[in-house]
Amino acid sequence: MGTPLDPIIGYVAAILTGICFPFLGHSQIESGGTAAIESVMRIAIVVAISFILSDYDDFQRLFVAGCKY
């Protein structure tokens, strides 16, 4: 079923994944200036919206195979 340590293990795994495999969208960033800030903000907004949507049952049912929420 699971253990009480599962959330902690998931948290540590997420941190390690973020450190080992940095956000791939940063390959589009230009060097400095307003263009770089706009690019980072645009990518961050898309990721934030995706993260928020992934919490909704309809979204999970659409994209996760075998989801029965």
| Derived structural class | mainly alpha
**Cα gyration radius (Å):** 16 Å
How far the N terminus sits from the C terminus, by CA atoms, comes to 18 Å
Average pLDDT, rounded to a whole number, is 75
Strand fraction band?
A: under 5%
Largest sheet: none
DSSP helix count? 3
- Any idea how many domains? 1
What is the succession of H and E elements?
HHH
Shape: flat
Number of strands: 0
Helix content: 55-70%
Would you identify the regions where 5 or more consecutive residues have pLDDT less than 50? Answer: none
Description:
The chain is mostly helical and 69 residues long. The chain has one domain (6-63). 62% of the residues lie in helices and 0% in strands. The chain contains 3 helices and no strands. It has helices spanning 6-20, 33-53, 57-63. The longest helix has 21 residues, at 33-53. The two termini are 18 Å apart. The model has no long low-confidence stretch (mean pLDDT 75).
Summarize the topology.
Layout: H1 6-20, H2 33-53, H3 57-63
Question: What distinguishing features does this structure have?
Answer:
69 residues, mainly alpha, 3 helices, 0% strand, flat
Could you give a quick summary of the protein structure above?
The chain is mainly alpha-helical and 69 residues long. The protein has one domain.
